[in-house]
Amino acid sequence: MKNIILSVEGMTCSSCSNGLEKYLNKQNGIINANVNLVMANVTVDYDETILNQEKIEKYIKQAGFKSAGIFKEIKMEKQNKNEKIKFIIFTILAIILMYISMGHMIHLPTFEILNPHQNPTIYTVTLLILTICFLVYGYDILKNGYKNLIHGIPNMDTLVMIGVISSFAYSLYGMYQILQGNHAYTMNLYFESSAIVIYFIKLGRYLDGISKDKTKEAIQKLVQITPNQATIEIDGKEKIVTLDEIKKGMIVVAKPGEKIAVDGKIIEGKAHLDESFITGESKPVQKQVEDTVIAGSMNYDGFLKYQAERIGKDSTVSEIVRAVIEASNTKAPIAKIADKISGYFVPVVIGIAIISLIAYLLLGLGTSNAIITFVTILVVACPCSLGLATPLAIVVSEGLCVSHGILVKKSEILENASKVNTVVFDKTGTLTYGKLKIAKIASYTDLEEKELLQLVGSLESKSSHPIGKAFTDYLEENNITKLQIDDFENIPGFGIKGKIDSQTVMVGNRKLVEKENIENHYLDDEKKLSEEGNSIVYVIKEQTIIALIGVNDIVRENAKEVISKLKQKQIQTIMLTGDNKQTAETIANQLGITKVIANVLPSEKANIIKELKQEGNYVMMCGDGINDSPALANSDIGVSVQSGTDIAMDSSEVILTKNDLNSILNLIQISEKTVRTIKQNLFWAFFYNLLMIPIAIGFLKPIGISINPMIASLAMVFSSLTVILNTLRLKRKI
Q1: What is the pLDDT of residue 503?
Q2: Chain-centre distance of CA 141, in angstroms?
Q3: Of 382, 515, 547, 574, whose Cβ has the fewest other Cβ atoms within 10 Å?
Q4: C-alpha–C-alpha distance, residues 415 and 411, integer Å
Q5: Is pLDDT above 50 for 81?
Q6: Distance CA 157, CA 609 (A)
Q7: In the chain, what are the domain boundaries?
Q8: CA nearest 631: which of 322, 392, 425?
C-alpha cells in the first residue's frame, strides 16, 4: 500500500468534497480516500500494483475536479492578488448593476437613457451585458455545478448553477418579449438576480479564502523557521548554497547569529542555541561535539560545524508540518456525521425547489413567482456553512496545538481528548526529567567506588535506558575510560548483561535478581534506599550481588500543578512504572497521585491499560516513548513526552514537543473547546437552513415575510461568516 497527498482544484463546499471522496472510494485499487475541503487536497491510500499517480488524477478529473499534483505543504500561498483586483472590479460593477436595476424603485436619480419606462430596450440590453460579465466571472461555479450534476454528485455549485441559469433564461424570455414591444415584462426581469447571486457566492469564497489562510499561520511560521541559505564546507573552502543543495553527510557551518539550516550532529565547536520553537525551553541550550542540532535553531555565540543528517522532508520541521497536514486530512467522528448529512442535503433541496416550482404553477401563482421561488430555494440552501463547520474548526485547532507544542497526528484526537477520564503517567522521563544522578552506593565488594562505577558505566554505555545516562555521565565528568564489553545483551524490563575481562556482569532491578535465581540478602538495604526516593540498581558479578546503587531523578517542575488541575477536572491520575513500589510511592506522594502501579514490565503495562479500558475508562497514556510503546499503542490516546529530534520515530498519536506536562491540560482544553465550537457551528448551519428554506418557499408570505434570490445569497454569505468567525474565536480561548 502506498500513500499520496494531491492538491485538488474546483472544490467549493462539503458536497464537493463528499462527492469526490465517495467517487474515489468506489474505484478499484483505492483502499481509502480522505478529502480535505479546507486544505483543498486529498489523501489516498492505494494499491501500487493496480494504480499510480496518473490514474488517480484521472479519477479526480472524471469526478469533475482537477488535480494540481503533489500537495506542496511547505509552499502554501495566500490568495492571488489578481483575485483581489477582480473582486474589487466586480464589486463596483455590482453596485452599478443594482443602481440601474433598482435605483428607480427607491426614487434615486437615474439617467434618462437607462430609465426602464422611457428606454426599456437600452435598459434591458445594459442589464444583459452587465449580467454576462458576471456569468463570465462565475464561469467556474457554473462549470463545476454542471460537471457535478452530470457525474451524479450534485453540490453547492449545482444549486447555484441551476438557479442562476433558470433566472437568466427566464429574463432572456422577458427580454425577447420587450424587444417584441411587450414592455410590461420590464418589471419581470431578473438579470440582476443571476449576477448578484454569483457576486455574493464569490464574496463568500473570497472571505472563506482569507479565513483559510489565517488557519495556516502556525504551519507557515514553522516553515519560515529555517533559513533560505546556508554555508557548507567543501575541501576546506566555504560556499553559500540554498537548502535544496545540501545533501546528507555534507559539512555545514553555523556562525554566531545564524540559524541551523538542517538537522545534524556537531563535529566541531560549541555554542548556545535557542531551540524554544521546538522544545519550549526559553533558555539557550549549550551544544558541543556529538550533540544533535535542529533546523531553525538560532546560534547565539559560537562557531559550529555540523554534519547534515536529516534534510528536506526528513527534517524535524518538515515532519511536524507533514503530521499537521495529515492530521487535518483525517476525519473526526463528528465530521463524518456532518459529511453524511450534507451528502443527502443537495438532492433533497433540489427536490424541494422542483416541488415548489410545480406547486406555484399549479396554484396559478404566476410563472415569474414560481421561477423566483425556485431560484431562491436553491440559493438560500447552499450548504457552504455546513461544509465549513467541522473541517475549519479542526484546522484552526491543529494550528493552535502546534503553537502550544502539541503535535496531534489524527484529527479524531481533537474530539476524543475531551472524553478522557483517566490519565496514566510513566514515571522516569515523564513525571520526572529523566536526568538521573547517582545518589548513594551500598557496596559489598573490595572494588573501590571509582572501579565499581567504571564497571557499571561501561556496561550502561551500551544501553539507551535513562538510568544508564547517570553512569555514563559519571564516566565523562571524571574522565574515566570505558572498559571493553563483550557479548552485550539487553533484557527488556529487567536490565542488561555483558562480559568484562571474561567475567559476566549484570546491571538491573530486583526482577533481574529473581530471574537469574540469585540469592538476595540485601532487601533491607533496598528498602532504605527506596524510602529516600531512589531507583535501585543491582550490580551482579559472576552470579553474586556486589552492590546496590541508589539513583535519584528530578521531579518535573510543574508536574504537581498539572496533577492537581487534572483532579479538579475529575480526571483520575495513575502512576505506572517499572520502578520498585517504595520509590514510586515516594514520588507519587510528592505529586499528589494516589494510585500507583509499580514493578511492571513494558508488556504488563499494556495489559493494565487494557484492564482500565475494560472497566469503562477513557484512557490517556503519557510516556517517554522508549519503553512505553505497547502501553501507548493500547491506550485510547497515546501521548509521548519527547524532544523534537525524536518526532519522526515516535509512534504515539500525540507528541509534546515542548516536553511540558501543561501541554496535556492544553490538549484536553483545546479538545473541549473544539468540540463545543463544532457543535455550535453545526447548530447555526442547520438552524439557518431550517429557518430560511420555509421562508424561501413562501410559507411566511401571509405575514409579510419573504426573500428574493439576492437576499438569499447574502443570507448564505452571512451564514458562512457566522461559522468562520465563531471558529476563529478558538484562537483566543486558550
Answers
A1: 92
A2: 29
A3: 515
A4: 7
A5: yes
A6: 49
A7: 2-70, 81-217+324-393+678-732, 227-314, 409-427+557-661, 437-552
A8: 425
* SS3 annotation, 347-393: HHHHHHHHHHHHHHHHCCCCHHHHHHHHHHHHHHCCCHHHHHHCHHH
- Per residue in 631-658, pLDDT (tens digit) is 888 899 988 876 544 543 455 788 887 7
List the catalytic residue out of 208, 263, 274, 426: 426
Q: In this predicted model, which residue has the larger pLDDT, 216 or 513?
A: 513
Give the single-character DSSP code of 239: E
Pairing of the two strands 263-268 and 304-310: antiparallel
Give the C-alpha separation, 315 to 263, whole Å: 6
| Domain 409-427+557-661 CATH (choose: 3.80.30.20, 3.40.50.1000, 3.40.50.10170, 3.40.50.300) | 3.40.50.1000
Mean pLDDT of 501-517: 92
Task: Specify the range with the lowest mean pLDDT, choosing from 37-41, 166-170, 418-422.
Answer: 37-41
Residue at 725: amino acid letter: L
Q: Which residue shows C-alpha cell 462539503?
A: 14
Query: For residue 383, what pLDDT is reported?
Result: 61
Lowest model confidence (mean pLDDT) among 170-184, 269-283, 310-324: 310-324
DSSP state of 531: H
Domain pair 227-314 / 437-552, same fold: no
Give catalytic status of residue 426 as yes or no. Answer: yes
pLDDT digits (tens, 9 = 90+) for 612-627: 999 999 999 998 755 6
Write down the mean pLDDT value for the chain.
82
CATH topology of domain 437-552: Calcium-transporting ATPase, cytoplasmic domain N (3.40.1110)
The whole model's pTM is what? 0.64
Average pLDDT value for residue range 289-301 = 87
- For cell 522516569, name the residue: 428
As a whole number of angstroms, the distance between CA 667 and CA 403 comes to 11
State residue 93's pLDDT score.
92
Question: What distances in angstroms separate CA 504 from CA 447, 489, 539, 540, one per listed residue?
Answer: 16, 11, 11, 8
Q: Looking at the predicted structure, is the pLDDT value of residue 273 above 80?
A: yes
Query: What's the mean pLDDT in 419-425?
Result: 94
pLDDT > 90? residue 571? yes
Confidence band (pLDDT; 50, 70, 90) for 265? very high
Do the beta carbons of residue 650 and residue 391 sit within 8 Å?
Answer: no
Category of 502 on φ-ψ map: left (φ > 0), alpha (ψ -120 to 50) or beta = left
DSSP string, 395-445: HHHHHHHHHTTEEES-THHHHHGGG--EEEE-IIIIIB----EEEEEEE-S
The CATH code for residues 227-314 is 2.70.150.10
Give domain 2-70's CATH number out of 3.60.10.10, 3.60.70.12, 1.10.1060.10, 3.30.70.100: 3.30.70.100
Instruction: Identify the weakest region by mean pLDDT among 90-94, 249-253, 312-316.
Output: 312-316
In angstroms, rounded to a whole number, what is the distance separating the alpha carbons of residues 591 and 527? 21
What string of DSSP letters covers 463-528?
---HHHHHHHHHHHHTTPPPPP-EEEEEETTTEEEEEETTEEEEEE-HHHHHHTT-----HHHHHH
